[in-house]
Amino acid sequence: MCELLAMSTRHAAQLIVSLEALARHSGPASGTRDGWGVAYFQGRDVALFREPIAASDSPLVRWLEQGGPSNTLAITHIRRATLGTVGLSNTQPFVRKLGGRAHVFAHNGHLPGIAQSPALAFDRYRPIGDTNSEHACCALLERMHGLWHRASTPPTVQQRWAVVTQFAADLRPLGPANFLYADGEFLFAHGHRRIHRESGRIEPPGLFRLSRTCSMAQQPPDTQRAPTALEAQAVTLIASVPLGRGEWQLFAEGKMVVVSAGLGTCQ
After folding, report:
1. Which tens digit of pLDDT belongs to each residue from 49-94?
2. What's the CA gap between 8 and 42, in Å, rounded?
3. What is the CATH number of domain 3-266?
4. Residue 202: in which H helix or E strand, if any?
5. The model scores a pTM over 0.90
6. Domain ranges of the chain
C-alpha cells in the first residue's frame, strides 16, 4: 500500500531524514515502487516534484534530500499502483488551484465504488489520471469551491474543518481513507485503516504523528535549519508508519487533526 508523509513547522526547515527514510521504503523488496512525489509549499503556491519511478532509484530524490527547499509545509507520497497505469498523471500528490492558492491532496488506500458515489461527484474539477485517489481529490475540491470561490477573506478553520470531516465520513465506507490535504495555511490529516505488512490485514492505525517544540539548537534530526538564539521551533511530522526515533502517536480509526505552523489547532 502507498505511504504518506507530511511536515509542518513554525520556522522554515528542510525535510531530510524522514524523506530519506520514506524513500528507503520503496526499495527493491517493497511494493511501493510505482512513483513518488513531494509538494513544498512556498506561500500560496507549491514547488511540485514527481516521477513515476521508485523513490529509492531517483537521483532527484537524492538531490532533494541534500538541497531541497526550506519551507514550513510539505506533503510527500510514494505509490503502489492498485488502479491506473504507472505514469506521471497517476503520481501523487495532486495539486489544484482554488481561491488564489494551491491546494494539495495525497491519499493512501483503495476506494472501489467511488465513481458511483453521488456524495463524491464533481463538476468543476476533473481527474487527469485514472486513480480513485485523484477522484477523491476532485470531489473534495468540489466541496471546498463553495467556501473559497467568491470569499473576500479565507474561510475560517472551523468552516474548512466541517467540509473536510464530512468528506472523510463519506469516504470511509468505500475503503481505506487515509489522506493529507493542505491549502498552504492548514494541514488536514485523516487516519483510517491500511494494510499492515506484519499481519497482511487492513486495519487501523492508518497514520502516526510526531510533534515536538524545542529551541532551534535542539530541533529534531528530521529537519535542518541553522539555529538562532532564543528562537523556538515547532515541528509536526505525520506518516503512514513511524519514520525514525521519537514518540510517534497513532491515529485512532477515523481521527482527523489540523496542523498549522507545526502545532495542532483542531482534532
Report:
1. 999 999 999 999 999 998 889 999 999 999 998 888 999 999 999 9
2. 13
3. 3.60.20.10
4. strand 202-203
5. yes
6. 3-266
